[in-house]
Protein backbone atom coordinates (compact mmCIF):
# COMPACT_ATOMS: atom_id res chain seq x y z
CA UNK A 1 0.00 0.00 0.00
CA UNK A 2 1.42 3.43 -0.89
CA UNK A 3 1.61 6.35 1.54
CA UNK A 4 -1.32 8.29 0.06
CA UNK A 5 -3.65 5.29 0.16
CA UNK A 6 -2.60 4.45 3.73
CA UNK A 7 -3.25 7.99 4.96
CA UNK A 8 -6.65 8.14 3.27
CA UNK A 9 -7.56 4.74 4.71
CA UNK A 10 -6.73 6.06 8.18
CA UNK A 11 -9.00 9.08 7.64
CA UNK A 12 -6.43 11.84 7.23
CA UNK A 13 -7.33 14.71 4.89
CA UNK A 14 -4.34 17.07 5.05
CA UNK A 15 -0.63 16.27 4.86
CA UNK A 16 1.55 19.02 6.32
CA UNK A 17 5.14 18.41 5.34
CA UNK A 18 8.65 19.34 4.44
CA UNK A 19 9.93 16.60 2.17
CA UNK A 20 13.57 15.57 2.29
CA UNK A 21 15.34 13.38 -0.25
CA UNK A 22 13.70 10.20 1.06
CA UNK A 23 10.26 11.52 2.02
CA UNK A 24 10.03 13.63 -1.14
CA UNK A 25 9.84 10.57 -3.34
CA UNK A 26 6.40 9.81 -1.87
CA UNK A 27 4.94 13.04 -3.27
CA UNK A 28 3.43 11.43 -6.43
CA UNK A 29 1.48 8.96 -4.28
CA UNK A 30 0.28 11.76 -2.00
CA UNK A 31 -0.76 13.97 -4.92
CA UNK A 32 -2.55 11.07 -6.62
CA UNK A 33 -4.80 10.40 -3.62
CA UNK A 34 -8.02 12.37 -4.21
CA UNK A 35 -8.92 12.72 -0.53
CA UNK A 36 -5.63 14.34 0.51
CA UNK A 37 -4.51 17.94 0.41
CA UNK A 38 -0.73 18.45 0.46
CA UNK A 39 0.45 21.52 2.40
CA UNK A 40 4.13 22.49 2.43
CA UNK A 41 5.66 24.69 5.08
CA UNK A 42 8.98 26.51 5.17
CA UNK A 43 10.09 25.41 8.66
CA UNK A 44 9.24 22.33 10.68
CA UNK A 45 7.93 24.37 13.61
CA UNK A 46 5.30 25.75 11.25
CA UNK A 47 4.16 22.22 10.47
CA UNK A 48 2.95 21.56 14.02
CA UNK A 49 1.35 25.01 14.28
CA UNK A 50 -0.49 24.55 10.97
CA UNK A 51 -1.56 21.02 11.93
CA UNK A 52 -2.83 22.33 15.27
CA UNK A 53 -4.89 25.00 13.48
CA UNK A 54 -6.29 22.47 11.02
CA UNK A 55 -7.21 20.12 13.86
CA UNK A 56 -8.87 22.93 15.83
CA UNK A 57 -10.93 23.76 12.74
CA UNK A 58 -12.11 20.16 12.37
CA UNK A 59 -9.44 18.90 9.97
CA UNK A 60 -7.56 15.61 10.08
CA UNK A 61 -3.92 16.64 9.53
CA UNK A 62 -0.90 14.36 9.29
CA UNK A 63 2.62 15.78 9.68
CA UNK A 64 5.62 14.47 7.71
CA UNK A 65 9.24 15.58 8.32
CA UNK A 66 12.76 14.31 8.87
CA UNK A 67 14.10 13.76 12.39
CA UNK A 68 16.39 16.79 12.32
CA UNK A 69 13.32 18.91 11.60
CA UNK A 70 11.57 17.24 14.51
CA UNK A 71 14.38 18.46 16.77
CA UNK A 72 14.15 21.98 15.31
CA UNK A 73 10.41 22.06 15.87
CA UNK A 74 10.47 20.99 19.51
CA UNK A 75 8.87 24.08 21.00
CA UNK A 76 6.02 24.05 18.51
CA UNK A 77 5.50 20.32 19.08
CA UNK A 78 5.55 20.87 22.84
CA UNK A 79 2.91 23.58 22.58
CA UNK A 80 0.63 21.59 20.28
CA UNK A 81 0.79 18.23 21.99
CA UNK A 82 1.44 19.03 25.64
CA UNK A 83 -0.37 22.34 26.11
CA UNK A 84 -3.28 21.79 23.71
CA UNK A 85 -3.27 17.98 23.93
CA UNK A 86 -3.95 17.80 20.22
CA UNK A 87 -4.05 14.25 18.84
CA UNK A 88 -1.61 15.09 16.04
CA UNK A 89 -0.09 12.20 14.15
CA UNK A 90 2.84 12.04 11.83
CA UNK A 91 5.63 10.26 10.05
CA UNK A 92 9.22 11.08 10.98
CA UNK A 93 11.97 10.03 8.60
CA UNK A 94 14.97 8.97 10.69
CA UNK A 95 17.97 9.65 8.51
CA UNK A 96 20.82 7.14 8.60
CA UNK A 97 18.80 4.96 11.00
CA UNK A 98 20.90 1.93 10.11
CA UNK A 99 24.17 3.88 10.25
CA UNK A 100 24.30 5.63 13.65
CA UNK A 101 28.11 5.60 13.53
CA UNK A 102 28.06 8.28 10.80
CA UNK A 103 25.26 10.48 12.21
CA UNK A 104 24.23 11.39 15.76
CA UNK A 105 20.61 12.12 14.77
CA UNK A 106 19.16 8.57 14.80
CA UNK A 107 20.26 7.93 18.38
CA UNK A 108 18.54 11.09 19.61
CA UNK A 109 15.04 10.50 18.18
CA UNK A 110 13.67 8.08 20.77
CA UNK A 111 15.04 9.99 23.80
CA UNK A 112 13.59 13.21 22.32
CA UNK A 113 10.13 11.66 21.89
CA UNK A 114 10.22 10.07 25.35
CA UNK A 115 11.14 13.45 26.87
CA UNK A 116 8.03 14.94 25.27
CA UNK A 117 5.90 11.95 26.19
CA UNK A 118 5.03 11.29 22.54
CA UNK A 119 4.24 7.66 21.77
CA UNK A 120 5.80 6.24 18.61
CA UNK A 121 6.37 3.06 16.66
CA UNK A 122 9.00 2.10 14.10
CA UNK A 123 7.75 1.04 10.70
CA UNK A 124 9.23 -2.09 9.19
CA UNK A 125 11.58 -1.87 6.26
CA UNK A 126 9.41 -3.62 3.68
CA UNK A 127 8.47 -0.48 1.73
CA UNK A 128 4.73 -1.04 2.30
CA UNK A 129 2.66 1.47 4.29
CA UNK A 130 -0.11 -1.00 5.25
CA UNK A 131 1.16 -0.91 8.85
CA UNK A 132 0.75 2.84 8.83
CA UNK A 133 -2.93 2.63 7.89
CA UNK A 134 -3.59 0.14 10.70
CA UNK A 135 -1.50 2.11 13.19
CA UNK A 136 -3.43 5.34 12.71
CA UNK A 137 -6.93 4.03 12.08
CA UNK A 138 -8.01 4.76 15.67
CA UNK A 139 -6.41 8.23 15.54
CA UNK A 140 -9.76 10.01 15.76
CA UNK A 141 -10.25 8.67 19.28
CA UNK A 142 -6.80 9.67 20.52
CA UNK A 143 -6.29 12.25 23.24
CA UNK A 144 -2.68 12.87 22.31
CA UNK A 145 -0.11 12.50 19.55
CA UNK A 146 1.29 9.41 17.91
CA UNK A 147 4.22 9.18 15.50
CA UNK A 148 5.55 6.57 13.11
CA UNK A 149 9.31 6.45 12.61
CA UNK A 150 10.55 5.60 9.15
CA UNK A 151 14.14 4.32 8.91
CA UNK A 152 16.04 6.10 6.13
CA UNK A 153 19.34 5.12 4.59
CA UNK A 154 21.63 2.20 5.23
CA UNK A 155 20.17 -0.16 2.65
CA UNK A 156 16.61 -0.44 3.99
CA UNK A 157 13.72 -0.66 1.54
CA UNK A 158 12.98 2.94 2.49
CA UNK A 159 16.40 4.28 1.48
The CATH homologous superfamily:
Thiamin diphosphate (ThDP)-binding fold, Pyr/PP domains
Largest sheet features: 6 strands, parallel
Give the percentage of residues in beta strands. 15-25%
Number of helices: 7
Largest sheet, spatial ordering of strands: 2-1-3-4-6-5
Low-confidence stretches: 155-159
Helix/strand/pairing category: alpha/beta
What is the C-alpha radius of gyration, as a whole number of Å?
14 Å
Average pLDDT metric: 86
CATH level 3 topology:
Rossmann fold
The structural domain count equals 1
Please state the oligomeric state of the protein chains shown: single chain
- Span between termini: 17 Å
Describe the secondary structure blueprint for this structure.
Layout: H1 3-9, E1 14-17, H2 27-32, E2 37-40, H3 44-56, E3 61-66, H4 67-72, H5 74-83, E4 89-94, H6 106-116, E5 120-122, H7 130-136, E6 146-151
Parallel strand pairs: 1-2, 1-3, 3-4, 4-6, 5-6
Helix pairs in contact: 1-7, 3-5
Describe the fold and architecture.
By secondary structure, this protein is an alpha/beta fold. The chain has a single domain (3-151), classed as Thiamin diphosphate (ThDP)-binding fold, Pyr/PP domains (Rossmann fold). The chain contains seven helices and six strands. It has helices at 3-9, 27-32, 44-56, 67-72, 74-83, 106-116, 130-136, and strands at residues 14-17, 37-40, 61-66, 89-94, 120-122, 146-151. Strands 2-1-3-4-6-5 form a six-stranded parallel beta sheet, sandwiched between helices. The longest helix is centred in the N-terminal third of the chain and has 13 residues, at 44-56. The model is unreliable at 155-159 (pLDDT under 50).
